[in-house]
Amino acid sequence: MARRSAERLKSYLELISRKQGLESVLEATSPQSDVAFESAESPMAREARSGLESVLRGRDPTPEEEASLEALIIPDLRPAIDIVDGKFNSTHRLWTHLTSDAAVRGRIEAAIPSVGRIELPGNPQYPYGGTGFVVGDGLLMTNRHVAGIFATGLGDRNLAFKAGHKAGIDFQRERGGTEGTTLLVRRVVMIHPYWDMAILEVEGLPPDRKPLKLSVANVFDLDGREIAVIGYPAFDPRNDATEQDNLFDRTYGVKRLQPGQLHGRANTESFGKIVSAAAHDCSTLGGNSGSEVVDLATGEVVALHFGGRYQEKNFAVPTFELARDSRVVDAGVEFAGTPPGGVPPWSDWWAKAEMMESADGTAAPTPASPSSQDTAASSAMVQIATADGGVNLTIPLHITVRLGSPASAGTKPATESVAAIGGDILEALVEPWRDSNYDSRKGYDENFLDVNLPMPTAADVKVLAPTLKGETALHYEHFSIQMHGARRLALLTASNVTADPKLKRPEKNRDYTRKGLTGLGKNDQERWFVDPRLDAKFQLPDVFFTKDRKAFDKGHIVRRDDVVWGNSYADVRRANGDTYHVTNCSPQTKDFNQSAQGVENWGDLENHVLSSASKEKLTVFAGPVLDASDTVFVGAGGGGKKISAKIPSRFWKVIVAPIQDGIAAYGFVLEQDLSEVQFEYVVSDEFVPHMYPLAEIQEMSGVKFPSQVLDADQYDTVRGAEVAISAGAPRKRRS
Fold first, then answer.
1. Domains parsed from the chain with CATH numbers
2. What is the pTM of this model?
3. Between helices 3-20 and 43-56, what is the axis angle to 10°?
4. Choosing a second label site near 174 at 20 to 30 A (CA), which of 114, 232, 495, 725?
C-alpha cells in the first residue's frame, strides 16, 4: 500500500479511537465478532486485527497488515445500516445501543420519515441530486450545491429553475426497490450566499413528514458526541470500489443510517471562501449531500452535511449558525430553541448576493446570426424610432439611419443593415461599445492568485502571430491572448476570474446587463471587431461568422462573464468590450456554445471548481485544439471574397483555484461534432466535457504550461474526482 494511503488509514483510526477508546475499537473487531470478519480463523482476519493494534498503539503496520485492515476492519467501524419500512436493526458491537436503547432508537426513527431523496425528473446527467429533509411547513433543506444542479441565483431573490429542469423529493427509496411518490419542488426559497445550504418549497407534503427541529446549541462544544446521518449514499468513484461494496453491500441510492461522532471545528473550502464547519466521521458518500446530522442524545439536527473525505473527515453546516441568520428564521425553518438573533460575522455575504445579477440576467445566449439567404421582403413599410436618435425603416429591407449619436469615451458602435422577412424587423449588426485606447491594458496578471503563475506559451513559438509591435501576446482587460498565425485563431488565452459581486457591480445604479454594457439597442445584434494591433491577415473577420449559413456561433474563448469585473463601471465596461475582439472568437456549433435544452455548458466548469476553492478567484487558461486533421470550412471574407478556415472540433480549459495549502489545477476537454455541419443547419447533439491529465492537454494543444500548474494537477486526486463528478465531466485519458 502506498505511503499516502497508510497515513490516511492511520489518521482515520486515530480519529475514531480518540473519542471511542482504544480498547472499545479493539473489542469491536475481536475474533468473536462475526460482523467484522467472515471467519474468525481466516489469516486475513488475524492480519487485520494485528494491524489495527499496531496502528492504535503507535507502531507501523506491515504491508500485509495494512492491506487486511483496509479490506476488513475499516469499512465496518462506521457502518451503513439498512432502513426498511422506516425501521433499522444495528448488530455491530460498537453500535448495538442504537437498537437496544429505546430512547435513542425512538429519536432516530422519529427522524427517518422526514428524510428523502432529491429527485431530478428528466435529468440526463444525474440519477438523483442528493438528500433533503423537512425543516418547516412545506419546506425542505438541502445543500446549495445540490440545488445548483437544477436552480440558478443566490440569496432569497431572483431564484429560478434552470430551463427544462425539475426537482422533487421521494421519502421512500429504501432497500428492496421500494419507491414512493415524488413530490415536486414548487419553488426555490433560498440559496444561501455563505453556507452550502438551500431551502426548497415542496407541494403536497403529507402531515406525517414532520419538520425536524434544528438545534441552536453550539455544535463545536459537542466534540465526541454520538450522531447519525440519515441519507442516500451513492456509489462514489472517488473511493476504492471494493471498500464501498463491502460497506454498502453493493447497494446504493437507498436510505441508510450512518452513525459516527462529532469532532469539533474544522476549516474547509466552500464556494470561494474558508468556512468553520462541524467535523464528523460518519461513512458518508456523494449522495449524502444534504443529509441531516442528528444528535443521538437529543434527537435534534445539529448540522447539515455537505462534503468531506471518505474515511478521513467530513464537514457539515452548523445549525446554530443558521439560527443566527434572521432570513433563515423568517423563511419558516423550525428550531429547537429560540434563535439568538444578532448579526453574524458573515452577514455581508447577503449584501454581496443582492448585488448579483438576476437569475435570468445577462447570460442568455446571443441571438443566432440571420442567414444571408433570408432576403424575402414584405411590401409594407415599418418605421420605428430608436432610443439613440435613429430611425429603423423596413421598405422592405431593414435599414438603420442614425442622425447623430451621443458622445462616448470609447468607440461608438458601428452598424450594418440586415434583411427582414415578411415584414418582421430583424436585428441590426452593431459593434459593442469598446475603449479604443489600448494603452491601459495590462492583460493577464500572473500574481492574481498570490502565487506566481506565468502565462503558458506555445510549445513552438514560431507558430505565433506577431503583433504590429513584434510581441507575441495581445493584452486586454484581465486577459491575454496568443494567436496562431496560420490558423487565424487563438492558440491560448489566459484570464483572471473573480466571482466577487463587489467587483462585478462596483457602482450602484448602473446598467450591468449585457445590453447595457455593450450599448446595443433592443433589436441590435453583436458584431465583433478586429484588433488593430494585429495584422488583419491573422484574424477571421466577423463576416465569416455572420454569413456562414448558420453553421457556427461566435464563441467566446475567454468567457465574457469571467473577466467582466473591475473597481469602477468604466473598468467593467472596458473588459466587456474587449471580449468582442475576433481574436477571442472561435467558431463553435451553436449547441456547443449555447447549451442545449438547459443542460449546463462549457462555461459552467468555473462554477464547479469555485465551489471547492478558498477564495473567489480563479485563473483560467483555455483555447482550441488546433489539429492538422480539422475540417476545412469555406466562408465569407468580406468584399465578395471567400475564406477557407479549419474548424476546431475540440477545446481545452485549465482552471487553477486557490486552496488552503496552495493551488489546485483541473484540466478539461470538450468536443464538438462537426460531422453534420452542411451549411444549412448544425448538429444538435449534447456536448459532454471530460477531465484530462494536464500533461495530455499540453501534448494535444501545443501549449506549454508552467511547472507550478502541472505540479498542481488534480486529475489523480480525490479533490479532482469531486470536481469531475459535480461537473458531469468524467475522467478520461487519450490512451
1. 3-76 (no CATH), 78-356 (2.40.10.120), 369-427 (no CATH), 431-727 (3.40.570.10)
2. 0.73
3. 70
4. 725
